[in-house]
Amino acid sequence: MIFLGILDSNSGDVMSYRGPDSSSREKQLEQRIRNLSKNLERAEQKIHELKKALRESQGENKKYQLNLEKALSKSQRLDDLMEELKTINERPKAYTEENSKN
């Protein structure tokens, strides 16, 4: 009973060279290797998908952050303009009060 297994990294298949009589244990091990290889391929694919999703999410997050900064900047500008408008509205009132006293 001789078993030499070589894992073909491109296909994930096990190429085996056996003697004339292979045991059921060897067949089980061979099947286990195939299953592990398939699981590894699936895991690598899932990792690739998750990395892609993470990059997309980070890009969307960056866009959201930039939009938020723009909105905050506009909000601050509006606040400044409101203060300026308030100041302008108070000047004529103060001017009118001074003139009415005279």
**Terminal residue distance:** 121 Å
Overall mean pLDDT stands at 83
SSE topology string = EEH
Tell me the number of strands: 2
Major sheet, described briefly?
A: 2 strands, antiparallel
Total tally of structural domains: 1
Total of DSSP H or I helical runs spanning 4+ residues: 1
Strand coverage percent = 5-15%
In what order do the strands lie side by side in the largest sheet?
A: 1-2
SS class: mainly alpha
Share of residues in helices:
over 70%
Radius of gyration: 37 Å
- Which stretches of 5+ consecutive residues score pLDDT under 50? none
Shape call: rod-shaped
Oligomer: single chain
Please provide a written account of the structure.
With about 100 residues, this protein is mainly α. The protein has one domain (about 5-100). Helices cover about 75% and strands about 10% of the residues. A two-stranded antiparallel ribbon has the order 1-2. Strand 1 and strand 2 form a beta hairpin. The chain is rod-shaped.
